[in-house]
Amino acid sequence: MAETVERWGVIDIALQGPSDGNPFADVQLSAKFTQGNRSVEASGFYDGDGAYKVRFSPDVEGEWSYVTASNRDELAGKTGQITCVAPGDGNHGPVQVVNTFHFAYADGTPYKQVGTTCYVWNHQGDALEEQTLASLEDAPFNKIRFCVFPKSYDYNKNDPQFYAFPQAQPQGDAKYAFDLTRFDPAFWRHFEKRVSQLCELGIEADIIVFHPYDRWGFKQMARETNDFYLKYLIARIAPYRNVWWSMANEYDLMPWYPMADWDHYFETFQRLDPYNRMRGVHNCRQNAFYDHSKAWVTHCSVQSSDIHKVPQWREQYGKPVVIDECCYEGNNRHCWGNITGEEMTRRFWRATIGGGYCGHGETYVNPEEILWWSKGGELVGTSPARIAFLRKILEDAPAAGLAPAGRRPVAACEGCASTGDAYFLAYFGVHQPASLTINLPEGKSYRIDQVDTWEMKIETLKESASGKFELAFAGKPYMALRIVAV
Amino acid sequence: MAETVERWGVIDIALQGPSDGNPFADVQLSAKFTQGNRSVEASGFYDGDGAYKVRFSPDVEGEWSYVTASNRDELAGKTGQITCVAPGDGNHGPVQVVNTFHFAYADGTPYKQVGTTCYVWNHQGDALEEQTLASLEDAPFNKIRFCVFPKSYDYNKNDPQFYAFPQAQPQGDAKYAFDLTRFDPAFWRHFEKRVSQLCELGIEADIIVFHPYDRWGFKQMARETNDFYLKYLIARIAPYRNVWWSMANEYDLMPWYPMADWDHYFETFQRLDPYNRMRGVHNCRQNAFYDHSKAWVTHCSVQSSDIHKVPQWREQYGKPVVIDECCYEGNNRHCWGNITGEEMTRRFWRATIGGGYCGHGETYVNPEEILWWSKGGELVGTSPARIAFLRKILEDAPAAGLAPAGRRPVAACEGCASTGDAYFLAYFGVHQPASLTINLPEGKSYRIDQVDTWEMKIETLKESASGKFELAFAGKPYMALRIVAV
After folding, report:
1. Closest approach of A234 to chain B, Cα-based (Å)
2. Domain B3-85 falls in which CATH fold?
3. What are the extents of the domains in chain A?
4. Chain A residues inside the 8 Å CB shell of B411
């Protein structure tokens, strides 16, 4: 009888095969999954101890058959049936780009990106990692950026429990050595468990493939090693529907990889990932954006404090803009890690009314040096509650998404976004008008809501308004105005 | 016996002459003031009722002689003596540019520009004008921008008591008419009284010569009329040592005057003003700066919210940068008139650490529509006290002035200014580091002060520090760090 899996779920075809030699490198395995005229080819992977898997995520309900292919007879020509059933509660499928600048799940549910960053939360051991998951369960975030490789940096001095590659005997003065021709299945089982747990929480896993903060040697490997790593990563992790691929955190701080290599890694994901998961790459320096207009980039992943440029980047690249790093709320010694909760909230709002999306991170220093931005743990800042409030507003907004609007119906001091004539969201930030001149589109009535983005309160000022009029307004900072056609 | 006048004071040579015809246009009068080999030629002006004056401000102590010249015999060839004595208390002479980017009074006292704007405070009648003067006496401002002509705009609907030109009979539907071939001495006596009172208070009068907010016809006059007006303005007002000339408020909103006209008006001041008072011109739109590198411009008078560009403008124009308009603290319906006191204070600090200067204005709406920015009156905002605190810090800083500094001795999140290796002022704005890495210049000891720019408190963290070290810092927003060589 066929095994069942829900639509956009994950199923493993498990096989036994050779464990001699180096199965990671020597054994080729894949399976072709077929439904009617449609086939999806998925690469398999070696999981140690003679265990092989081909992991698959079907995107259409009904019966699928498969047949394996391998350079080893005992793994080749295996066939079977899978029954794909309706998705379970909370499973809306993978996130995709819609309406050029926005996102939706595959079932059509709008996805309003509200991200956070915990670079190596998955390298901290079970106790802290489970605390992070518990924090995420109560937090507003529906995407989290984190790394495959561990991190070596200020506030990040600990070694991880697992490494992607097995350790080897260090030579000479070297402190670390790895066998880069194999993988450590323990690492990968742990990693995929965390990805899967995020999926259960409804959180997209924005997986950072490379990054420069390293003392183990993973930041600068041969292109063949990277290709070997990518193939394994994709075979094992791509089937999780919540996966996004970030080629790098701060790719421009890894100048030893020429631009052609970055292009090549993007192309590798394009070629090997049968699910075509989201792909981006994150910069450090303001003037060092990767060319997000390249075909394999699905969205602009931006580090910048110039939030007012979101409309410009939309225009320039014609893709969704996600400010994955806009500085972090906290008080550490680095300028990128010590903005106030007010300013973090303001940056979320400014990205929103620019027609883009923003990302959070938290960097309050504590004696244990467990800073959320890197290790996860607890959230102690003031912005997450306000970001949750914004997320609710976004989820109540039109599914089509927001675009930067002009000076009608209101001269919003920090920007106004709209969905056609149906919906307007104006933000005032550090401006505090006590009155506003409203000039509504002709022939429609609107509800006028005053939104206190800091106190998290919404007050309806007019149930039904039209035309041009003067509106008494709060006269305090961090206010927004929501105008909804009724 | 010679009349006496203090150095940089004002003395009028009073003469009686013809009152028939149009003395404003028909009678030419000037005087040459001579001390040793040096002569200063000053134009005279007609003050009505047969009274003529040549107003003079000597800049060197000792004996001066004068002789008048005129196209009327009864005004020509008059001679006399003036004794110029030492300046009185608080008289430091006119402000001049020093060290390329900064200002000092003629006696060498540093002048740290801390401006405000009350566009037509001088058109509001004695009661309100005297209240404004009383407010200024207690305020931190040492420069005020205001207009010769009245203003017609939102919150500015009242007619003035005096007009520069005498009123005439309106024709047809016109509500106003003026005889633009004459001046109204009552207006000018009032105007110069206000300039003189500001001088007594130690406040520079940044006089706006033209502006576009007009319903009387003064915004668009024939070039000959403007020349006639300028000659009279200069003869009468230039001798006050606190005068600065601003060709316009928002010159770019007066497109009927081509750029050649603006150049011409600048040149007119250069040619006719024997004191070479400060000259600037203020823009509206960000991309419409007048070319401040032109020779007749003494300093960049800027309207902009992009305070972080001060170092760029210093570089570009090679002159002092004064952000005369950075938005105003208040709550009116216009985005330029409703920033918080916190943000206004922040903009002052950011201009300062960029090596420039800033200007205040206040726009809280009240039932009487007496907004400081335009009419003067009372100051009710939260920024003036903080601006006073900053002014004190600036006056305690090295006389040579501040220049934008790099990332040593501290990575200041919103910028750091310095005077060589002797003094550093770093500002953190919406950043709130709880610790900082300090890396002081070699071979010197420094006092380290933590400055709370909002609570207006200074705490010395270290009396004598040197080298590189970690410093515990406040962990709250709106803080600065002052580092002074000891």
Report:
1. 39
2. Immunoglobulin-like (2.60.40)
3. 3-85, 95-396, 405-485
4. 334-335
